[in-house]
Amino acid sequence: MLKLLNLLRDGRFHSGEALGAALGVSRSAVWKQLQHLESELNLTIHKVRGRGYQLAAPLTLLDAQMIAELAEGEQWPVFIHEVIGSTNAEGLRLAGEGQAAPFLVLAERQNAGRGRRGRAWVSPFAENLYYSLVLRVDGGMRQLEGLSLVVGLAVMRTLQAFGIKDVGLKWPNDVLVGGQKITGILLELVGDPADVCHVVLGIGINVNMQSNTQVDQQWTSMCRELGALIDRNRLVAKLNSQLQHELERHRRYGFAAFQEEWELAHAWQGRNVSLIAGTTQVDGVVLGVDGQGGLRLQVDGMEKSFSGGELSLRLRDDT
């Protein structure tokens, strides 16, 4: 199927005869593969008698060699999948089987992608970035303090490097552009949190997605913001570089070194919010974050800090 996609990805018309000759199959076999592409990957393919077949939009597939050629720093081993359940789940599986970290898992599409709090992550084929970086952590949980916030900063700087304006962060794991979500971050852990463990930095970035009725919140994409398609291989290389820089800073100095710059980037700084944990809701004003990455709120005239993976932050209606 990828061979056929590679022939069609230039967005031009290709005759069934030419496609069959290139693939070494009959025209009817080409037709069946085209139907499979449409049904399984939800791709739109134009069929015009006398001209052949054309993808509705040009397609750039992920390519490990191209990512390596674009690399600006250390080159991590990369595993690229056409379709996978979840890049995070695959990263955890490989770590459990002894794959040496750091390494990177990418996919063109996820059919069981997940976000925070058990939510599904919409993952159309070859439109967005589904990225999981697996790291080995020695020395226990303290090495992870504020790590998801540091990842958010790295993503924000990557987007800014591509020319995107009005990028901000939302505690604890979202990146926003103009108040609309463009990135979600999900960290997952395997191993002994008191000793040696592996952490998976799962990052989903809306790249070339221009319409999707499955997303249940306000969103945007790099393509929407810039008015042009983005080469996802270039995006991976730039994100790798930013993460290498910020992760080294975090390893050496901890989250306290990022606290002030993270607060300056927080889109909801000073806003009235509701912090929700299950059926419990706390209303307050965002003061910032503490040295461990916890959210600081002013609640009934007192400052309180909150942290935890199951917390959700919402703007209050009175803001």
Written overview of the protein:
The chain is of the alpha+beta class. The chain has 3 domains: 2-55, Orthogonal Bundle (Arc Repressor Mutant, subunit A); 64-263, 2-Layer Sandwich (BirA Bifunctional Protein, domain 2), CATH 3.30.930.10; 268-315, SH3 type barrels (Roll), CATH 2.30.30. Helix content is 30%, strand content 29%. It has a 7-stranded mixed sheet, sandwiched between helices. A 5-stranded antiparallel sheet has the order 13-12-11-10-14. Helix 2 crosses helix 3 (27-41), helix 4 (64-70) crosses helix 8 and helix 6 packs across helix 8 (232-253).
For this entry, give a set of tags.
about 325 residues; alpha+beta; BirA Bifunctional Protein, domain 2; SH3 type barrels; five-stranded antiparallel sheet; about 30% helix; globular
Annotate the secondary structure layout.
Layout lengths: L1 H7 L7 H8 L3 H15 L3 E4 L3 E4 L8 H7 L7 E7 L2 H10 L6 E8 L18 E10 L8 H15 L5 E4 L3 E4 L2 E12 L4 E10 L16 H5 L5 H22 L5 H7 L6 E6 L2 E10 L5 E5 L2 E5 L5 E4 L4
Parallel strand pairs: 3-4
Antiparallel strand pairs: 1-2, 4-5, 5-9, 6-7, 7-8, 8-9, 10-11, 10-14, 11-12, 12-13
How many helices? The count is: 9
Question: Strand-residue fraction?
Answer: 25-35%
Q: Runs with pLDDT <50, length 5+?
A: none
CATH topology of the largest domain: BirA Bifunctional Protein, domain 2
The CATH class name of the largest domain reads: Alpha Beta
Distance between the termini: 50 Å
Order of helices and strands: HHHEEHEHEEHEEEEHHHEEEEE
Largest β sheet strand count, sense and barrel closure: 7 strands, mixed
Helix content: 25-40%
Which class best fits the helix and strand makeup?
alpha+beta
Number of strands: 14
| Physical arrangement of strands within the biggest beta sheet | 3-4-5-9-8-7-6
What is the CATH architecture descriptor of the largest domain?
2-Layer Sandwich
